[in-house]
Amino acid sequence: MNLTISLNSTGNDMILQTIQMVDLNSQYNKIKTEVDTAFQEVIDSSVFINGKAVNTFEQSLAIYLQSKHVIACANGTDALQIALMALELEQEDEIIVPAYTYAATAEVVSLLGLKLVMVDVEMDSFNISVSAIEQAITSKTKVIVPVHLFGQSADMEPIMEIASKYNLWVIEDNAQSLGSEYTFSDGKTVKTGTIGHIGCTSFFPSKNLGCFGDGGAICSNNDSLSEKIKMIANHGQKIKDHHSVIGCNSRLDTIQAAVLNVKLKYFEEHLLARENAAKFYDNTLQHCEFIELPSKMLNAKHTYNQYTIKVKNGRRDALQKYLLENNIPSMIYYPIPLYKQDAFKKYVTCNTEMENTKALCESVLSIPIHTEMNDEIQNYIVQTIMNFNG
Questions:
Q1: Which residues, 6 or more positions from 65, have their beta carbon under 8 angstroms from its beta carbon?
Q2: Buried (b) or exposed (e) across 12-31, using 16+ Cβ within 10 A?
Q3: Distance of alpha carbon 175 from its chain centroid, rounded?
């Protein structure tokens, strides 16, 4: 959603600025020469599938994440599905996922005929509840899928302890939080997506690191799992025309890898811009009584793929309408709990009432945040929010 507002009116002169949830065009214009050159190199090579840029990107991302293996794929949903396929699960096996997340996390479980077990999340972090995980474990539980939502890590240390205690796999859904970090009690800091047995991410254009179409990646420090993942993503073949396992066709296009190679060079700069925009909101909205600002874990680095507030006293929809009337876009992630979605009703098992999930779906509102934010636009957004009295 792109909306234009008038700022700094001086006489007959009017400065028009467009408020966007994510300003991809301005970001592109800053690196246009490099991106266009990278495009042309791919076009000149005419190797549009499995070109050199794909391998370069996999290696560069592995170095950035300090992960032993990175396997690029077509999108973040495929990444999750391939990760589950690599574990050779059986249809009665139970997969624990948060009830408050995007549909893809649960969708792949149902697509593979596995048993969905949804658990509640924490009100402050929006992430999966550690206590709810342990309460949901049965003899059929095989996998925990924590989602690092909106740019903040789930509480991974106790999750990994539970996984070790019950001999479970952990697949991290890191689609919204690439670049985020988690610090363990021993002081070790690691990137999200590299803590569990397998990490999955997305390069959808609006993500922290986005390409110009669809893209995804899977990372792991396990050699045998990584080899299997690579085969599955390529029709189950390690050697051409020798299909060792049932696989799928999920490849990152060379031209998307070329974009990502350029953007990865600026990734930390882009994350800092998001962090600064979040600090601006934190400082200017902290005394706004009808909203609750996003919390930040003391032992984690938040990368703010979304800046998501909670609106008190049932006023969320009225605030969103008011913002729209003032040309400010916003989004609700997510208005309907997954367990209430028609698609999942016959697949899902819920062990609790999901009170936190229900409350979040009724109160959350994400306001614009991206790498190209400026004080003028943010001031306008903040003042508009504070003027709301609906």
A1: 191, 193, 194, 199, 219
A2: eeeeebebbbbbeeebbeee
A3: 3
Domains and CATH numbers, the chain: 2-20+266-386 (3.90.1150.10), 30-265 (3.40.640.10)
7: left (phi over 0), alpha (psi -120 to 50) or beta: beta
Distance from the Cα of residue 381 to its chain's centroid: 24
Sign (positive or negative) of CA dihedral 160, 163, 167, 169: negative
Q: Which residues pair with 142 in a beta bridge?
A: none
Virtual torsion, Cα 53, 58, 60, 62, nearest 10 deg: 180
The C-alpha torsion from 201 through 203 and 207 to 210, rounded to 10°, is 150
In terms of C-beta density within 10 A (0-12 exposed, 13-18 middle, 19 or more buried), how is residue 50 classed?
middle
- The single-letter code of the amino acid at 49 is I
pLDDT in tens, 297-347: 999 999 999 999 999 999 999 999 999 999 999 999 999 999 999 999 887
Q: What is the pLDDT of residues 216-274, one digit of tens each?
A: 999 999 999 999 999 999 999 999 999 999 999 999 999 999 999 999 999 999 999 99
- pLDDT average, residue stretch 38-57: 97
* Cis omega (within 30 of 0) for bond into 334: yes
Residues with Cβ < 8 Å from 357, sequence gap 6 or more?
Answer: 98, 99, 100, 120, 121, 337, 339
| pTM score | 0.95
* Assigned token pair, 10: 């001086």
